[in-house]
Structures are given as structure tokens and as C-alpha cells.
């Protein structure tokens, strides 16, 4: 049966995406506890802290911590959600701050003020006909759990995460249908403290710790899926991957093999969450690395019986790799090291702009999993300059999104991929996770704040705001 050419399905979930740790602020308000992101500063120490090499477990007076206020969504959520509704959002992806609900992570009772805040946010979304898509954990661990048990290196984290899930699934079972267990679960390999609250001591086997933490998160994700489906069978539970296919630098078989290895490094997590077992290549890799995961008797059964309902992912860029160590030594880009692809333009932060790569990535994942996909992050980080009236002519962002939406539509219509929705990243300007900057802007809405924390927090619509409004109203038909 032939699809309507270039049509997206009715009920397609257009919207935008944020994360509590990058937009919420109010970092100790409403009895919220200290979170991992709250101790990650902007500046030269951000990356060492983010990878778990520089131990920072408290805030000090020598650093600026962007998450403490961020864009103050905590006090501006009604205004912001009204702007999302004006754009026509059908869906708003946001995350919960674990430390707002369980300030220490191991509290006897949840924090009612925190639960009430998210009640109010969800009510505001539903008032405007916007479906919340909630990430349970988006680079967010209560600092107390880092200090007391070492965060996700400890199996005890699974129990704390279970309690969080039981509380939120019961509390919001009539308000939230779509849930993601962990944001970009593969990021713990690249930014271990940001992704999983891991801090390494001198001489430790860091790879073994990372993969044990990954196993603990995979078990937690399966338990969350089990709990969710028991509480409300209508819940849809997804996993979340930082995606982007890795191309081979040349047609040399060694380069092709290297690119396959790089893709598997990321797919491994989703293979477990979607297929319910460790793939043979992952078992052999762990064997070669002499890593013996600590597993409990029921782990394999739990993973097999509690796979996710859909696959969500972020896509910003493709990657390029070589088997030649000398060639690969010159990698550039952001968190994911990549060679510069001569066929692609790059953003101001070195991310290579590859719309066709989105279609390639979607096909690779759909072929692999045969489950519905959901693009929950995609966008262009850029320095936006306001004119005298505060307006931003962000045609570069419109062009980026237009070309990626075209590729997304081709994947749906030409390739037959089942796609649930599209929520571009940072629909309102927020703090960059990797750099802590405000000047790296993604939003349709400009927020008056700079890297040093100065500004009025005034919200202003950019040119892309009205463009995206038309895109949504036409269900992706009007892209000019």
C-alpha cells in the first residue's frame, strides 16, 4: 500500500526538547537537593569534571555554575509553555530533576514541593493540548548518591531509581503517556560524570567501571519498563541514544571495519534495551578487555522480558573514522571525536551538517530494531545576534532544520520508517551541556542571558519561531 507522497502521519508529535539541568534553574529552591550538574562549572575545568577526572563534589566561589539559574524555567514555565503552544506544539520533551523529587536520592519520602512543581508543569502542558514526553534521568544524579555510593558504579543505584520510577509513574499516570528511561545512555562512555555521576580515582580500571555502570543503568531501564507497564499498560517507554552513523574514511576494508566498530560501540546499549540481551560482539569485546560484569541471577531474564516500546535518539551530525592511527589522531568535533568530512559544512562548534546522514541513521536503526523511532533532539547551535529590536534573523537555523525535516520525511515516505515525532533540541535557548555556554543557542526563542550569567531573562521570538509554527500547522508540508 503506497503512502501519500511526502505526507507525515496524522497525530505526528511535533514539538521541542529541553532538559531540567539545562533550563530549570532554581537549583536549591523548593527543597531541591544538589545534583551532579550543579557542581559542573563553565570554563577550563568543565571538561575535566565532566569526564570524571577532576573531583568536584561541592560548589566553590572560584567558579560560575550555569545550572544554578539556567534560564529559570522554574519560574517562567507558564510563559514558556504558552510560547510553545503558540508555535503549535503537540509534544514537549522535558526531564525531571531527580534531586527535586528525592533531594538526597535515598530519602525515606519524596519531596512534595518537587512533585507539585511537575504536576503544575504537566497541567500547563495539557491545558494547551501539549503531550509531555518525560525523560526520567537526563544527566542528573543527586550528589549525595555520588558521595555515598559512587553513583552508577554501585548496584544500589538500581533500587533508588526504582523508587523514583514508582513514585513518578503513580503520581503522573493520568498526565504523562510517553517516557524515556535515560537520556543518551551511551554518553556515559564519553562524559562519565555528566552521563552517570562517575568520578575516577588514580589507578582504577575506568573502562570496567564505565561498563559496570552501563549494566546497572540497563537493568534500571528494564525495571522501569516493567514497573511502568504494570502501573499503566498505556504507557509507552522508550530508550534514548546519541545517534549518528560513522562513515569510513576510505573504501579500504580496514576503514569500513573501523566504522562498524564505532557504530557498535553506541548500538550496544540499544541492542540490550530493544532486543533484551547482550549481543555477541559486546560479550567478545568485554572479554577482550578482561571486564567481568557483576550480574545478578535474574538480570538476563529481566532484560529479555522488559524491552522498550520505541527507540528515541538525538541526531546532530554524522561521524567519520579511519583505521590508520596517524589519520585518526587529527580528529575534531565535539564529544564524539570525528575526522573532518570534506563533503560537509560544519557549524561554529565543528559539528558537521549532514541532513542525508539523518536518513541514513534512521534506516540503520529501523532495519536493526523494527520498532517505532522518535527524533527527540536535532538542531543547530549557533551564535545569534539580535538587531536593535531584539529580533534574530536565524535563517541558518531554518535552513538546517528544513533540510533535516526533508530527510526525515524521505525516511518515512520513501523508506517506510515508522516515526512517532520530532522534537528539535533547545526549542528555547538554554545552557549547553557540553560547554556550559549560553551563546551556543539552539532555540526558536531567544533568552537574554550570557555566558557569565548576565541578562534580564526576557524571552523574544526569533525568525525561526514563525517558520516552525507554519511547519507544524502544515504537518511538515510548508517548509519555505
Automatic annotation (TrEMBL):
One GO cellular component term: cytosol
Record-linked PANTHER family: 6-PHOSPHO-BETA-GLUCOSIDASE, GLYCOSYL HYDROLASE
Keyword Hydrolase: yes
Protein's name according to its UniProt entry: Aryl-phospho-beta-D-glucosidase BglH
Superkingdom of the organism of origin: Bacteria
Pfam families registered for this protein in UniProt: Glyco_hydro_1
Gene Ontology MF terms in the entry: 6-phospho-beta-glucosidase activity
Entries under InterPro entries matching the protein: GH (IPR017853), GH_1_N_CS (IPR033132), Glyco_hydro_1 (IPR001360), Glyco_hydro_1_AS (IPR018120)
Organism: Clostridium vincentii
Amino acid at each position: 500500500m503506497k503512502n501519500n507522497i511526502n505526507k507525515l502521519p496524522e497525530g505526528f508529535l511535533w514539538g521541542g526538547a529541553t532538559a531540567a539541568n539545562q533550563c530549570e534553574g532554581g537549583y536549591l529552591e523548593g527543597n531541591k537537593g544538589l545534583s551532579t550538574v550543579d557542581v559542573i562549572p563553565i570554563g577550563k575545568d568543565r571538561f575535566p569534571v565532566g569526564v570524571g577526572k577532576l573531583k568536584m563534589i561541592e560548589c566553590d566561589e572560584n567558579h560560575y555554575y550555569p545550572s544554578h539559574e539556567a534560564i529559570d524555567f522554574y519560574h517562567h514555565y507558564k510563559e514558556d509553555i504558552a510560547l510553545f503552544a503558540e508555535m503549535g506544539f503537540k509534544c514537549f520533551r522535558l526531564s525531571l530533576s531527580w534531586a527535586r523529587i528525592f533531594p538526597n536520592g535515598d530519602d525515606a519520602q519524596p519531596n512534595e514541593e518537587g512533585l507539585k512543581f511537575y504536576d503544575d508543569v504537566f497541567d500547563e502542558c495539557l491545558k494547551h493540548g501539549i503531550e509531555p514526553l518525560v525523560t526520567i534521568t537526563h544527566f542528573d544524579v543527586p550528589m549525595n548518591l555520588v558521595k555515598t555510593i559512587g553513583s552508577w558504579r554501585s548496584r544500589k543505584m538500581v533500587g533508588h531509581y526504582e523508587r523514583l520510577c514508582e513514585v513518578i509513574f503513580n503520581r503522573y499516570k493520568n498526565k504523562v503517556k510517553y517516557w524515556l528511561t535515560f537520556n543518551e545512555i551511551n554518553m556515559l562512555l564519553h562524559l562519565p560524570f555528566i552521563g552517570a555521576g562517575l568520578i575516577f580515582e588514580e589507578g582504577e580500571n575506568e573502562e570496567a567501571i564505565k561498563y559496570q555502570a552501563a549494566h546497572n543503568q540497563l537493568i534500571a531501564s528494564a525495571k522501569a519498563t516493567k514497573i511502568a507497564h504494570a502501573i499503566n499498560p498505556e504507557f509507552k517507554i522508550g530508550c534514548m541514544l546519541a545517534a549518528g552513523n560513522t562513515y569510513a574514511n576510505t573504501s579500504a576494508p580496514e576503514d569500513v571495519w573501523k566504522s562498524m566498530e564505532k557504530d557498535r560501540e553506541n548500538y550496544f546499549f540499544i541492542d540490550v534495551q530493544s532486543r533484551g540481551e547482550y549481543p555477541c560482539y559486546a560479550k567478545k569485546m568485554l572479554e577482550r578487555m578482561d571486564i567481568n560484569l557483576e550480574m545478578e541471577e535474574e538480570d538476563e531474564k529481566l532484560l529479555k522480558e522488559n524491552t522498550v516500546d520505541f527507540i528515541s535518539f538525538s541526531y546532530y551530525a554524522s561521524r567519520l573514522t579511519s583505521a590508520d592511527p596517524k589519520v585518526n589522531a587529527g580528529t575534531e568535533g565535539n564529544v564524539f571525536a570525528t575526522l573532518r568530512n570534506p563533503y560537509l559544512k560544519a557549524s561554529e562548534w565543528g559539528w558537521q551538517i549532514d541532513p542525508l546522514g539523518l536518513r541514513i541513521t534512521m534506516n540503520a536503526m529501523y532495519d536493526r530494531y523494527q520498532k517505532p523511532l522518535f527524533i527527540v533532539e536535532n538542531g543547530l547551535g549557533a551564535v545569534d545576534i539580535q538587531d536593535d529590536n531584539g529580533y534574530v534573523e536565524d535563517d541558518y537555523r531554518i535552513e538546517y532544520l528544513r533540510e533535516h525535516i526533508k530527510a526525515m520525511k524521505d525516511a518515512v515516505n520513501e523508506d517506510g520508517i515508522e516515526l512517532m515525532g520530532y522534537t528539535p533540541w533547545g526549542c528555547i535557548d538554554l545552557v549547553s551541556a557540553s560547554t556550559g555556554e549560553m551563546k551556543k543557542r539552539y532555540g526558536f526563542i531567544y533568552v537574554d542571558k550570557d555566558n557569565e550569567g548576565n541578562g534580564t531573562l526576557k524571552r523574544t521570538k526569533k525568525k525561526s519561531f514563525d517558520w516552525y509554527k507554519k511547519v507544524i500547522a502544515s504537518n511538515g508540508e510548508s517548509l519555505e
